[in-house]
Amino acid sequence: MKLARRFFSLSLATIVALAMSSSARAGIILNFGQNGTSTPVTATASGPGSTAIAGVEAVTIAGIAAAVATPVNAFLSLNLNSVAATAAATTIGPVTLISQEYTGTFSITQNSNGSGTNYLSGTVDLFAAGIAGGASLSMQSILNPVFTSSVIPLVPGPTSANFSLTGIATPPGLSLSGGTIAPFTSSVTGTFSGHAVPEPSSMALLGIGGVGWFVRGLRRRRTTVV
Q: What is the pTM of this model?
């Protein structure tokens, strides 16, 4: 009987440990692509040596760590500005890599005015980089973004955000102007990573596995006693 109790305790401990490790495992919590019929993201001069990147875009959520069927049509509201302390864009290396830091907010919601379901929103600090004359700009978080959501059960832990701006055409390709990234229009996609509470189905599977281990232990004990 003591063996059975010990095995049962071990099984429960294992279930809890697996559940905790599952909830602590970082992964993609949402990714999206811009709807082809929507207007482009716009970068504009916001002052000497500064650029603002903004837009309200129709997007399609391709994946989300929540009990929500995908794909989902939603709206991205993006509002980024170059960081005041490091506003000037810089060029790096022989291929002329243009880089600049940005900070701001984003929200992916059910409606274009930010109302309805909040699929994912947050504040971000980003490092933007792209090849001069190229048609894309990659924006990767340099600090942990702060996320909120009404459908994704987020838990504390490291987070990251990535935006990819593509189809930059005005002026031809990515360029500098007055110490900052020159105005342009583009399409946008994005990926957000972080931590989410395991879905009930995953917890149920862990429980079933634990019960199975417990029953197997009892059978082995009975066989040994006989």
A: 0.76
**Residue 21, burial from CB neighbour count under 10 angstroms (0-12, 13-18, 19+):** exposed
Residue 29 in contact with residue 120, Cβ under 8 Å?
A: yes
The CB density around residue 58, as the number of other CB atoms within 10 Å, is 15
pLDDT of amino acid 202: 40
Distance CA 78, CA 202 (A): 34
Q: How many CA atoms lie within 13 A of 109 on its CB side?
A: 16
Q: Rounded to whole angstroms, how far apart are CA atoms 150 and 124?
A: 19
The span from the CA of 85 to the CA of 96, in Å, is: 22
**Euclidean distance between CA atoms 213 and 19, whole angstroms:** 16
- Beta bridge partners, 75, equal 58, 109
**Residue 18, exposed/middle/buried by CB under 10 A (0-12, 13-18, 19+)?**
middle
- With cut-offs at 50, 70 and 90, classify the pLDDT of residue 37: confident
What distance in Å separates the CA atoms of residue 183 and residue 137, rounded to the nearest whole number? 12
Euclidean distance between CA atoms 53 and 125, whole angstroms:
13
- State the DSSP string of 70-128: SSEEEEEEEEEEE-GGG-S-EEETTTTEEEEEEEEEEEEESSTTS-S-EEEEEEEEEEE
- Mean pLDDT of all residues belonging to the chain: 80
Of 81, 54, 73, whose CA–CA distance to 186 is shortest?
54
